[in-house]
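Input (structure):
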C-alpha cells in the first residue's frame, strides 16, 4: 500500500542510458528528454568541477572547447567510462523532469546492454541511486528493443531483434517474456564513425573529428551499392600540408569505409542464428529479424543482412526510439518488468 502511495506522489522514470543519446520517459506521459549523452565540465582556478552544459548544448562544444572546459561522453562502448560524470548527467536529467520539490524520489528503470558485467550493472544502479532515485531496476537492451518494436515478447514464439546503438550492437532471441539467447558486441555507431575517420585520413590525408564523421555517416552512409551515388563536401585539415581544406566524397567511399564494422555485425548475427534452438529457429524463419537503434537507419543495412543470412530483415517503426519506448512500457507493465529486469 505504501509503495502505491509513493507512486502517486512521484514521477516514475524510464531511462535509456545510451552511449550516443540518453532518453528519459515519465510514466504515463511519454518521452520527456532526448539529448546526446555529453556533459561539458568547466574547471575553476582551484581545479573544481562545475557542470557547464548537458545534452545537445554540450555536444555542440565537442572539439571546440578552451583549456578550462571539457566536453565529455561519460558512456563508452555501452558502459560507464566516467562514473562521476555519468552520475552528474543522470542527476541533471532526473532533476529536469522531476522538479516537484518536497515530494517522493522517483522509481527508475534503466536500460543496459546485455554484455554488462555485474560490477558495471552495480555502477549504473549506484549512479541512479546517488542521483536521487528511491528504487532502481535494470532491463536488458534486446528485451527493451523488442518491446518497443511491438514484438509480442510474452508469446511462445521465437523472435530475433538486432539493436545497433552508439556503443554496442545487441542481438537477442526472445520467447515467453525472456531472453533465450543474446549477444552483445562493441561494434556499433561509434566504431562506424571511427572507421570513417580512419578512411578519410588514409585515403584523402584529411583529418576530421567524431562529429563530422557522424554527419557523413548519416548523410551518405550506405551498406550496399546504390543505384545513384550520394555526394558530400567534407571539411577538415590536410595532414600533409597542415592547411584547412574541403573535398568531395561519395557514398561508395563511405560504404568501403564502413565495410569491416558492418561485416562484424553480420557475423555476430550469423553466430546467434547458428546457436538458436531448432524450434525457435523455425519461428525466426517465419517472423524474420527486426532491426532497431540508430544503426538500423543506415541505407540498405536491412538488405545487406537479409542477403547474408537468407532471411527477411525488417527495420522497426521509429527504430531510434524503440529501446526507450520499450523501457517505458516495461515500467508501465509490472509483469514485463519482473520478467525482464535484473535484480541483485
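Output (sequence):
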Amino acid at each position: 500500500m505504501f509503495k502505491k502511495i509513493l507512486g502517486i506522489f512521484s514521477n516514475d522514470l524510464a531511462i535509456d542510458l545510451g552511449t550516443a543519446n540518453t532518453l528519459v520517459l515519465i510514466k504515463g506521459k511519454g518521452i520527456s528528454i532526448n539529448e546526446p549523452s555529453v556533459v561539458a565540465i568547466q574547471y575553476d582556478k582551484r581545479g573544481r568541477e562545475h557542470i557547464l552544459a548537458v545534452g545537445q548544448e554540450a555536444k555542440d562544444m565537442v572539439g571546440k572547447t578552451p583549456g578550462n572546459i571539457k566536453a565529455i561522453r561519460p558512456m563508452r562502448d555501452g558502459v560507464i567510462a566516467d562514473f562521476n560524470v555519468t552520475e552528474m548527467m543522470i542527476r541533471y536529467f532526473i532533476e529536469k523532469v522531476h522538479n516537484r520539490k518536497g515530494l517522493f524520489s522517483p522509481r527508475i528503470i534503466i536500460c543496459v546492454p546485455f554484455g554488462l558485467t555485474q560490477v558495471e550493472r552495480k555502477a549504473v544502479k549506484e549512479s541512479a541511486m546517488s542521483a536521487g532515485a528511491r528504487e532502481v531496476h535494470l532491463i536488458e537492451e534486446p528485451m527493451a528493443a523488442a518491446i518497443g518494436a511491438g514484438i509480442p515478447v510474452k508469446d511462445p514464439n521465437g523472435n530475433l531483434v538486432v539493436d545497433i546503438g552508439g556503443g554496442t550492437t545487441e542481438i537477442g532471441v526472445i520467447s515467453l517474456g525472456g531472453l533465450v539467447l543474446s549477444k552483445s558486441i562493441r561494434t556499433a555507431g561509434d566504431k562506424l564513425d571511427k572507421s570513417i575517420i580512419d578512411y578519410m585520413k588514409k585515403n584523402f590525408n584529411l583529418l576530421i573529428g567524431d562529429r563530422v564523421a557522424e554527419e557523413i555517416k548519416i548523410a551518405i552512409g550506405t551498406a550496399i551499392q546504390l543505384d545513384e551515388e550520394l555526394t558530400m563536401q567534407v571539411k577538415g585539415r590536410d595532414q600533409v600540408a597542415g592547411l584547412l581544406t574541403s573535398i568531395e566524397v561519395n557514398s561508395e567511399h563511405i560504404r568501403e569505409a564502413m565495410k569491416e564494422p558492418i561485416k562484424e555485425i553480420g557475423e555476430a548475427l550469423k553466430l546467434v542464428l547458428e546457436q538458436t534452438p531448432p524450434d525457435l529457429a523455425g519461428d525466426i524463419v517465419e517472423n524474420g529479424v527486426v532491426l532497431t537503434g540508430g544503426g538500423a537507419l543506415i541505407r540498405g543495412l536491412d538488405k545487406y543482412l537479409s542477403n547474408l543470412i537468407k532471411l527477411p530483415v525488417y527495420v522497426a517503426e521509429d527504430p531510434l526510439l524503440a529501446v526507450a519506448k520499450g523501457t517505458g512500457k516495461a515500467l508501465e507493465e509490472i509483469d514485463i518488468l519482473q520478467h525482464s529486469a535484473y535484480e541483485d
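Notes: The longest strand covers residues 178-185. The radius of gyration is 21 Å.
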